[in-house]
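ZP: hey, is the iron/sulfur cluster complex queued? I don't see it on the tracker
AM: it wasn't, my bad. submitting now with these inputs:
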Amino acid sequence: MIELLAPAGNLEKLKIAVHYGADAVYFGGRDLNLRANAGNLSEKEIEEAVAFCHDRGARAYVTVNIFAHNSDIRHVPDYLAWLSDVGVDAFIISDPGIFRTARRVAPGVPIHISTQANTTNRESALFWKEQGACRVNIARELTLSEIAEISSAGIDTEVFVHGALCISYSGRCMLSLYMTGRDGNRGECAHPCRYRYALQEEKRPGEYFPVEEDRRGVNIFNSRDLCLIRRLPELADAGVSSFKIEGRMKGLFYVAGVTRIYRAAIDYMTEFLDQDTGRWIDDARPVIPDEFATGLDVYGSRGYTENFIDGPPGRRDMLYSGRQARSDYSPAAVVVQGGSEPVLRVGHLLRPGDRLEYMDRGIGTIPLEVLEIRDLEGGVLKQALGGDVVRALVSPRFNFEEWAVIQRHEGKAA
Ligand code: SF4
């Protein structure tokens, strides 16, 4: 079946993504990748990440996808050779210079072409195939039929199915650099496309004309977030090899929630697949039930769009009423040691009497109540604060799995 590829902004998110069913994860090292503020992994953490993935049958892809300058390129050969020795499963690359270096110093490591390379047609996919790439992440600005045509080129294709969108071609944008000095093409975007703007005439400094789309102001380029969960069966028919979730900058709650719901949707879809022929049983393409899509709302979004999948997006695909992802839920804790009396790393504040929800694999949750909190020496605590690691006694007692996440509905906090 098709791969589910999840973002891992740090080692903990990586473990959570794998726990919730990612077939593969992608992450950056501390250098040469396009998410400079994502946390990223140290060399020691990369070694641990690769071992963690491989122990659980998952794959580890490393982003090396900046547009490299000469000063960057000098570090590349040693870094790629080291990643190869560690056993990473693929490099994600956009820069031809880094690509060329990877082929030379780490020929055994598969290369995936990053979305930053903006592969928008079949010939481009064939070009990368001829260079020795084994996969292209195809541009987000394509329709379903274009995706199908590129996927017929004989190279694996990877498609973003969920997450934030750029208003330019997948981040090829200078807006952030001009406005804030933070270069979006080097992993430092400050998202000024989501700022609110006003109009000022040059001889009237400080006087702002009321450019208003509504009483909240104007958001010029504020795209809704991508969500193609309802289109997964069509993307499968189009020949896509990997469904990719955007969001190395996002929190662990998003990673856990979005990964588990896409995992559940892919597993649901797989039930309709004839494993012998690879076709849908009775040629009936499945329909993803609404509960999968609505389940995603818990993890925060700016509203959803299917972007270019049926043609160019329009006004309905922009968000004019705000720029923040909102949710009534938040992460209460991460299970760092499983069992019936789990050890938790607390998200914000945890108290006896709190009513929470354990995020099970699949789309379900298990309601629970915190009965008692203890420190790791057994001392009873009145409360635990964000970052504390504590043992919890909860009702009902069941086997908490390591790297599961416990969520809190803000209206239900004790
Ligand atoms: S400013 Fe907006 S469009 Fe430009 S790179 Fe950043 S997120 Fe993308």
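AM: back. Residues 3-172+222-317 form a domain with the TIM Barrel fold (CATH 3.20.20.70).
ZP: great, adding it to the tracker
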